[in-house]
Design brief:
This is Pyridoxamine 5'-phosphate oxidase family protein. There is one protein chain. The relative contact order is 0.19. By secondary structure, the chain is α+β, with helices and mostly antiparallel strands. The chain has helices at about 30-35, 75-85, 130-145, 155-160, 220-225; strands at about 25, 40-50, 50-60, 65-70, 90-105, 110-125, 165-170, 170-180, 195-200. It has five helices and nine strands; from the N terminus they run βαβββαββααβββα. The chain has one domain (about 20-225): Roll (Pnp Oxidase, Chain A). Strand 5 (about 90-105) and strand 6 form a beta hairpin.
């Protein structure tokens, strides 16, 4: 039997439709995945003792699932673990943002940035299956640098016992993108101020070997390709 094909778009909800600049929002699955796959750091927001907390952390994507990891002693992991045993899990909001350019207008009011962002709302649950945990950790490593998980020692039993992984399914998710030039008011067109976009470009430097690296170990192809 052929499995059902995923919809080309995520469902729109009250939490994933912005109140401002709705024309910049998208629920397109391919766009969401492309934005998520271009970086490896997210910001994870949740409530702790009734107060909001936002933590920067690494993540990895496998299909329509995001994984974040941390020490078994970290607050969000402990909270999710307790909630997962007695309730629906830990309610979170996860965000990813790329800044692509500084948008300089003639008026201070219309200064902006060109950006691509994703916001995910959902419930994070602890991963308890050992095979899924290993696959999630491989995905986290490869999300930072594709090919690295197979070119390093996998976590041993002690390290796995000290590591917790949260699973967040991509269900309530949207992208938002701003591109293009400044949007000055027509009456400001003659003002003598430079206006335009300053692009921001991400790049990689040359790999720097560790001091104790055996000189006979070659630079991996996935690094030289950068």
């Amino acid at each position: 039997m052929t499995p059902p094909q995923a919809s080309p778009s995520y469902r729109a909800t009250d939490r994933t439709v912005p109140t401002r600049a709705r024309e910049r929002a998208s629920h397109d699955r391919e766009l969401v995945h492309a934005i998520l796959d271009e970086t490896s750091v997210c910001h994870l927001g949740f409530l702790r003792d009734g107060a909001p907390v936002v933590l920067p952390t690494l993540y990895g994507r496998v299909g329509d699932t995001l994984y974040v990891h941390g020490s078994t002693g970290s607050r969000p992991l402990r909270t999710a673990g307790r909630a997962g045993q007695t309730g629906p899990g830990l309610a979170v909001c996860l965000t990813v943002t790329h800044v692509d350019g500084l948008v300089l207008a003639r008026s201070a009011f219309h200064h902006s940035i060109n950006y691509r962002s994703v916001v995910v709302h959902g419930t994070a649950r602890p991963v308890t299956d050992p095979e899924e945990q290993r696959a999630a950790l491989d995905a986290l490593v490869d999300h930072v640098l594709p090919g690295r998980s197979s070119d390093s020692r996998p976590a041993n039993a002690r390290e796995l016992a000290a590591t917790a992984v949260l699973r967040l399914d991509l269900d309530e998710v949207s992208a938002k993108v701003r591109t293009g030039p400044p949007a000055d008011d027509p009456q400001d067109g003659a003002l003598p101020y430079w206006t335009g976009v300053v692009p921001l470009v991400r790049g990689y430097g040359a790999p720097v070997p560790a001091d104790d690296l055996d000189p006979s170990v070659p630079l991996p192809s996935y690094l030289s390709a950068l």
